[in-house]
Amino acid sequence: MVPFIEKVKAARSRASETKVRIRSNRVLQKMFDYMYSDMQISRDEYFHIITNAFSGVRSRNGLDRSHFSFVQKIYEYCSTNWNKVEATVTFLRQFDTRRLHSLVKKYLPKVIEPPNLVMRFVLDGGDCRGFQREIYADLTLLAILGRAKAAALLAHEFHHSCRAEIAAPYKKTRHAEVFQVLCWLESEGIADKVYDLGQKKPDNAFEPLLKLVKIRRRMYSNASDYLTLFDKALRKWENPVTIFRDNAYHPVGHFMADVIESTLGTRELVKTVGEPFDFLEACNKSAKILQKSSIFILSEEAIKRLTKIRAEIRTKT
Ligand SMILES: [Zn+2]
Q1: CA 145 – ligand 1 centroid, Å
Q2: Ion ligand 1, residues whose Cβ is below 5 A away
Q3: CA of 185 to the centre of ligand 1 (A)
Q4: 163: buried, middle or exposed (CB in 10 Å: 19+, 13-18, 0-12)?
Q5: How far is the CA of 13 from the centre of ligand 1 (A)?
Q6: Cα(156) to centroid of ligand 1, in Å?
Q7: DSSP string spanning 175-200?
């Protein structure tokens, strides 16, 4: 990715109208695909934002769109703190990726061999994500976090990659969205035990991230309310995805993982890695043991529906 970074760096001195021309390849294409599907930011908009940021144009266009403002601010930070981003590149070049396994192994079943994967350090709108064989990580976000937290965030993504090695295959059914929500709660909840972007303030002040920490902490405190709504959606056969908008499955999942770990222990929590239904069951079991009003216990009706959905989507392949 270095030639890409060099080109972006060179764009600093160019006029805002100048197009940054980057030869496309599979990595960039994949990055643009997920930026578009998750943030609805097209390749052209991406170049527009990044060129404006590096040429000092502070355009307010598109700020009404949910992810646009964050991406704009990330690149404004990148252009004005390029020395920090460069220092992060130097740090990452020397970073021993074998360290990641030691940071995650507490929350991984022992059967998982650390996968041989490729880390791709990119400028992808302040996002980080772990796929089965590769990790994409935004250089500016890592620079804002600071070295130790950047390494911890990479470990969070590494956990996702390791989970993908063992996650059971499931059939796509009409209740796929319920299963998707459970997957997010389990995978993000346990990976957040490794590092939670929404709980710790970054080393360098960056307003959108500080705001995110505030919002996620509040969501964590209200986790039981989210689970109450999830239960209600199950009983009514409604799509539960919107309940967890703004990535609420991160703090809610983290809360659930904490409840399981503090009640049943780390070993029981680790057994649920890649098993979203088991994760929910373990949380419910813990809630019953704790008997605290702040922890929601699923209704019998919701459990019956989950059992039905589980049987539907389970596959032998
Ligand atoms: Zn994650």
Answers
A1: 16
A2: 188, 191
A3: 10
A4: buried
A5: 35
A6: 6
A7: THHHHHHHHHHHHHHHHHHH--TTTS
- 130 forms beta bridges with 135
Cα 289 to ligand 1 centroid, rounded to whole Å: 28
- Smallest Cα–Cα separation from 248: which of 193, 298, 181, 202? 181
Alpha-carbon span 243 to 241, nearest angstrom: 5
How far does residue 62's CA lie from ligand 1's centre (Å)? 27
In the reported structure, the alpha carbon of residue 157 is separated from the centroid of ligand 1 by a whole-number distance in angstroms of 6
Residuewise pLDDT in 10s, the chain (317 residues): 455 556 655 655 554 434 445 556 888 889 999 889 988 899 888 888 888 888 887 776 666 677 888 899 999 999 999 999 999 999 999 998 888 999 999 999 999 888 888 999 999 999 999 888 899 999 999 999 999 999 999 999 999 999 998 887 777 788 888 999 999 999 999 999 999 999 999 999 999 999 999 999 999 999 999 999 999 999 998 899 999 998 999 999 999 999 999 999 999 999 999 999 999 999 999 998 887 666 788 898 999 988 888 888 876 44
CA–CA gap between residue 68 and residue 50 (Å, rounded): 11
Q: What are the extents of the domains in the chain?
A: 1-166, 168-317
> Could you tell me how many residues make up the chain?
317
